[in-house]
Structures are given as structure tokens and as C-alpha cells.
Amino acid sequence: MKFLLVFDFDHTIIDENSDTWIVRCAPERKLPNGLRNSYQPGHWTEYMGRVFVYLGDNGVKEDEMKRTMTTIPFTAGMIDLLGFIGKNKELFDCIIVSDSNTVFIDWILKAADFHQVFDEVFTNPAAFSSTGYLTVQHFHAHHCAKCPKNLCKKKVLKEFLDKQLERGVSYTQTVYIGDGGNDLCPVMFLKKNDIAMPRQGYTLEKKISQLAQSLSPVQCSVLVWSSAIDIMSYLKLLIKE
């Protein structure tokens, strides 16, 4: 009996968007209008690339970025939940699928000593260049019309499950925990026995309920959470069964 827990990162594990939080490092903690207005739907990664160039041009160094990022608060109850999962790793495989980047997630998880809770992190690769600028790339290429250009979370989840099956690992249930519009695609891939846990009041919950109203509901069960303690209560029930 093994369960797969799939987490989004921004507004799910942490209570903010890591990409917008980094703007606190900018002069006067804001971006110039021209840069702010340069975002085009579906091309967030390219936009963040320009933000990182602006920060680099303004002399923002790696250590200042790291200091800023590690002040992001975790979502209510999340520290307890991740501690609980860490103590029960023999029952839970745990992955992150996020539109953030490897550098931010690594800093935040390591600072809180949670990196060992997660088996794999799937997110946009980022690194500091020789000149000290943070650069970010697309996670992969895909053909899904519903998802942003750089990341289809359904593709990531499907490929992970296939790879695990090849290794002889199959899961009793997949639990998907997220909040955003880009979490809908993987949720629609979940099977009847799986469970989607959208965060209350966020886009994912609204999109799932719109589907139910238009009589094309998702196949999996849905359990809304507002604090990560709600998720922990569900996991405790799961392992008792």
C-alpha cells in the first residue's frame, strides 16, 4: 500500500507566489511599468527571464535573493503536514510539480529542512550565470493546448507514473494538492479512485465546480482544503483504512 502525493508549490506549499515575491529585491520593491506590462499569456517563464535580467542589471546578487525567498511564509498547517509526511515516508511518495523554478524551490525547502520529504521536484530549471544573473528555462516541450508553453503538469504526472510502473511501483491512490488553473489539466487525468484537493477560494476549486455545473465533472473525488491540517486529517484516515 503506497500513496502518491502530488503538490503544486506557489499558494499551495507556500502562501505566496515565489515569482512575484522576488520583486521585493527590486529597487523600491517594484518593477518598471514597461517590464510589468511585457507579460503575454502563456509565456510567464520568458517574462520571469526579463525580471531576472532587470534584477541583475540593478546589482541584485544571489545571497540577497536567497535571503528574501526564505522569508516566504508556508501555508497554514503546511509545516505540520510536511512533518507528518516525513515521518511516514514508507507510505507516501511525494513530488512537486510547479511553474516556479529549481533555485527558488531548493532554497525554500532546504531552509525549512523539508527537501528530504520530496522524492522529486519537477519545475523550470534555473541557474546563476557566470555574471551572477539568474536564468530560467522551460521545463519541457509539449502539445497540450490547455497549458502554458513551458509546462503541462498532466504530461509530467503521466510520465512519472509510467516510469514508476516500469520500476514495479504502483500506487493505491494519487492525491493531487493544488490551487491554480494549470492544476486542472493533471486533475482531469486522475482516475476514479484518486482524489483532487483544491485550495478553497482559488482558481482550481472554481474550475472544478464549473465543470460539475456543465455536467462534465472530473472522474476523481474532490476534497477542498483551507488549511493543510485538512489534508493531514485526510491522509491520517487513508493510512488507517
TrEMBL record:
InterPro entries: HAD-like_sf, HAD_hydro_PyrdxlP_Pase-like, HAD_sf, Pase_PHOSPHO-typ
Residues given in the record as substrate binding sites: 19, 99
Family to which this protein belongs: Belongs to the HAD-like hydrolase superfamily. PHOSPHO family.
Entry cofactors: Mg(2+)
GO molecular-function terms, A-Z: metal ion binding; phosphatase activity
Protein name: PHOP2 phosphatase
Organism phylogeny: Eukaryota, Metazoa, Chordata, Craniata, Vertebrata
Binding site residues for Mg(2+): 8, 10, 179
Pfam short name (any one): Put_Phosphatase
Keyword set, alphabetical order: Hydrolase, Magnesium, Metal-binding
Residues annotated as the enzyme's active site: 8, 10
Translocase in keyword set: no
